[in-house]
Design brief:
Beta Polymerase, domain 2, 7-stranded mixed β-sheet, 15 helices, 7 strands
Length: about 350
């Protein structure tokens, strides 16, 4: 693993200080391609668009195309949300927006800058049949897949609209009970109900998670699995969420809600990485308390996983036969275990040799 500073850290710095005059030629072709592939193409276009030399770069056209495509895609997704909200309005309480469809409009300077693969909605379990009926009437269909069973999942089998090319996931919980985060009290039904906030989306009545719960949710969703494609998006989400949060943001609530739980580990990892490059501003006392509240990372473990983020999420270092994406994912999950680092390092060769259902996790 290389220790050089990833080029895309300059892009994340630009987001944190709202800079739009970076030199596009400071990013090599591989980095620009990776930014587009991983979902940061529109953000990179915004960050270089005020530099007079940028249009002369060989990468200008592809970045501009990524920005235009994102504008078209977000328009389709926004229209879809309005239609779904209208179809459900007379029979259900306002739908709760999750992930990209919520944070793009709420926290980003322009919604299309936050790419998304689907629309994530949260409803009460007893309302699933009503939402399913509304989606079917709007032309959405569930495409059966033998690869995954949804009986014990935290969302229904995804819905797809062929003409709109829009996917919708209808959640009845934030995580599956089989995941470590799923058993954390911060994501319980009672706490979730208390953290819903009435809001509006393009004129439609909706709900959103409180910003505090959104932060813990996105950190947990990001950290529980190693995801190269799209893994950078959570870093941008966090930067913009914290810029948007303002003085009323309650770190005290977060620290109490995640205390001694896996979400504390996930949040500590995400924030400590961003602080490594001064991309967010968080009081040292908050990070000290988070560090004491999590049980997965000492100095060695944190340094190791930060290097993995540098190499495989930010730089897009290629995988090979000796260290494949699968093996890096196993190392990631092993390092996330709530245990001292050295015993976990000894577990890595064992986990690499075992089938998934027998790994220590």
């Amino acid at each position: 693993m290389s220790s050089s500073r990833p080029q895309l850290i300059s892009l994340l710095e630009a987001l944190s200080i709202s800079r739009e005059d970076l030199a596009l030629d400071d990013f090599d072709d591989v980095t620009v391609d990776w930014a587009i592939q991983s979902g940061l193409g529109p953000l990179l276009y915004r960050a270089v668009r005020r530099n007079a030399q940028s249009p002369a770069s060989s990468n200008w056209t592809s970045l501009k195309a990524a920005d235009l495509t994102a504008r078209i895609v977000i328009g389709e997704h926004f229209q879809a949300v309005r239609e779904i909200a209208d179809a459900c309005r007379s029979s259900l309480p306002p739908l709760t927006l999750l992930k990209g469809i919520s944070i793009s409009e709420q926290c980003y300077p322009e919604a299309h800058l936050r790419l998304m693969r689907d629309i994530d909605l949260l409803v009460a379990k007893e309302s699933l049949s009503t939402v399913t009926s509304a989606l079917q009437q709007l032309g959405y269909r569930q495409l059966p897949s033998s690869a995954m069973r949804y009986e014990k999942h935290h969302h229904l089998e995804p819905f797809f609209h062929q003409e709109k090319q829009v996917w919708v996931e209808v959640h009845h919980a934030l995580f599956s009970a089989a995941r470590r985060a799923g058993n954390a009290s911060i994501f319980s039904r009672e706490n979730l109900a208390a953290q819903l906030r009435p809001s509006r989306f393009q004129g439609a009545e909706v709900c959103r998670l409180s910003l505090e719960l959104q932060l813990v949710y996105l950190a947990s969703h990001w950290a529980q699995d190693f995801t190269p494609i799209g893994g950078l998006v959570a870093l941008a989400d966090t930067i913009y969420l914290l810029k948007h949060a303002g003085a009323g943001f309650s770190w005290e609530w977060i620290l109490k809600a995640v205390s001694r739980s896996m979400p504390a580990t996930y949040l500590y990892l995400l924030l400590s990485y961003l602080l490594r490059y001064d991309l967010v501003n968080i009081a040292p006392g908050i990070m000290r308390e988070l560090s004491l509240s999590q049980r997965s990372f000492g100095r060695l473990g944190l340094k190791t996983i930060h290097r993995m983020i540098d190499d495989y999420l930010v730089k897009a270092t290629g995988f090979g036969p000796m260290l494949s994406e699968r093996s890096v994912g196993i190392i990631w999950k092993t390092l996330m275990l709530p245990a001292p680092t050295l015993p976990k390092l000894a577990l890595i060769p064992i986990n690499l040799s075992l089938p998934q259902d027998r790994r220590i996790q």
